[in-house]
Amino acid sequence: MGGKSSEHEVSLVTGENVIKNLDPAKYEIRPIKISKDNKWIRQEKEIKIEEALEGIDAVFNALHGEYGEDGTIQGILEFLGVPYTGSRILASALGMDKVKSRALFRLYGLLTPPNAILTKETWTKKPEIIKEIIENIKLPAVVKPVNLGSSVGISIVREKENFNKAFKNAFERSDEILLEDYIDGREMTCGVLENFKENKISALPVTEIIPPEGRFFDYEVKYNGQTQEITPAEIEPELSKKIQRIAEEAHQILGCRHYSRVDMIVNEKGIYVLEVNTLPGLTKESLFPKAAKTAGLEFPALLEHLIGLALKNR
Question: Is residue 2 part of a domain?
């Protein structure tokens, strides 16, 4: 838990919540914290990676964002032969890269918001191109880093004079950003869990996300408790089934493993896939555990299920 990413603090909260809900009579738990400067720490002492993982039966991966969710830590664990929870290298990398994941979704017939890619080099060295983009873009528009989670660095731009501020915010975190059509609709998210209730892949109950008035589901409102999260979503059963089917498809298209959560926007034109979270948050405020509980799986049982899936991959 922890890690070098912009989601360091949230990862620590996830990690502590996992530890709190694991049965100490069944598991010998060895918390490993990774500092922001990439030091591996166990029992308050810095330790080498291979020593930290020596004798471990399975790693519960409570990292989020860059390095923990993008295939980096997965590569280390694969190299050392240590089983771990969550998706493997390729699916993790694809899940974090919104450009490549959306290209795959479109290839398989799923809707995604129309978007264009902008590089930091273009922004800094070709102002004439930036000016032309701003003049011709349809408002409102969404500006977001290509490869971050938890809505870090995202802006919704409603006035053209605010584009440069939005670009600066996103480029501080990534060398590539997306310029995306703003899709007006209801925000839904749907978890997917493998080997649950005798199904190889099961979509959990759909959750509707309703941020505070005038806000979108950004980093702050994700974790401050001000957002309404309705599980199961109060929608027609047929729409719920469609959302669940799309969540399962997105999980499989990227080759995810064990569990994931798929974020979507729903309006009269269809169901738009925004992204797949290959390591959903597991804090007290997180959406995935709430959906699992609605499906009959309490948090300690969910953790046991995920550890069991990791051990099967030994």
Answer: no
